[in-house]
Amino acid sequence: MWSAFVILFICVVGTTYGEDWSYDYETRWPGQCNEGQRQSPINIMTRSALVDRLGLHIRGPLAFRGYGSANVTALNNGHTLKWLLVEDEPAPFVSGGPLRGNYSFLQFHLHWLSEHAIDGMKYPLEIHMVHVKTGLTVDEALKRPDGLAVLAIMCQVSTGGASEFALGEIERFFTKLVERHAEYPNTAVIDLTRLFSPEPQSFYTYHGSLTTPMCQEVVTWIVMDKPLTISDTQYKQISRVDVGRIDNYRSLQVADREVYRSVASCANVALPGLFAILASLLNLSSSLSGIMSKGVCVMVNIKKKFLGDRIKDCKMVL
Ligand SMILES: *[C@@H]1O[C@H](CO)[C@@H](O)[C@H](O)[C@H]1NC(C)=O
Ligand SMILES: *[C@@H]1O[C@H](CO)[C@@H](O)[C@H](O)[C@H]1NC(C)=O
Ligand SMILES: *[C@@H]1O[C@H](CO)[C@@H](O)[C@H](O)[C@H]1NC(C)=O
Ligand SMILES: [Zn+2]
Predict the structure, then answer these.
(1) CA–CA separation, 271 vs 261, rounded Å?
(2) What topology is assigned to 2-261 in CATH?
(3) Which sequence spans correspond to the domains of the chain?
(4) Which ligand is nearest to the CA of 186?
(5) pLDDT at 11
């Protein structure tokens, strides 16, 4: 009688909380997944994202320490390829940007196609670097709104020699981890900075959830929009990895909340534009003195020329 009870109990726990979930049945995911209000991933609309020029939310640049070498193990966990930092090693950590305090690197994994979309566009691959607030255990972090920080790096596919570089250190794992639940036999030291976006300070950030069960709403997302380039061959190898399906991304979730973008993410458009228009106006005021009515016309034209529609891409927060 007692053993029958125990077996039943294990079965129930196994189907509700275990690894037994599938991208085929997202509506059956447990926990916060179908009840939460701040779920991830989302479609990031660049025109609605707020630029925090006063630094109220995004306080200064992101600072990365210790990402140059990480001793990791790797596995195919049935849903993704995942590289975990070996325990008891000093962890790389990130601070700055929207983060309050330090966040220690835990693991990174891959999603093909990307989970986040930017203006409705998906990338072929998205890398997630998962971090836990320094000093907290993962269990503690899963109970705090600021417990985790995930850096998301978008990848685009190209051909040619340079495109092999970014994933060069991890591609040897792909063929070894093709089979579901395969584990890489050794530890390996890898350079995580090769997986960074070419412009890591150019990002969008918002508060959301884990994108797999239990979908806890404890994640500060930092989505880097300037994509890393990977090779076509590497992408083919990743797509051959058996995760039970041809892809492993969660559907887009309702996005009705604030998304911030770093000043660097619009530096190439709006900031030079603003400086240019100021300089031009100074030029104008000296060269056009005396022809005031004409001056106004010229100023309007210049404004259009330098700023055009692009200024609208960067909404100010005051
Ligand atoms: C990586 O971690 C393993 C397991 O703890 C250890 O045996 C190995 O020496 C470490 N490698 C390096 C380069 O630190
Ligand atoms: C973050 O780490 C740095 C370097 O170790 C340390 O000086 C700083 O005090 C830490 N910040 C917090 C909030 O713990
Ligand atoms: C200002 O005028 C000078 C002389 O016409 C020109 O060389 C310069 O590029 C102008 N500067 C700007 C910012 O338009
Ligand atoms: Zn992920």
Answers:
(1) 14
(2) Carbonic Anhydrase II (3.10.200)
(3) 2-261, 272-316
(4) 1
(5) 40
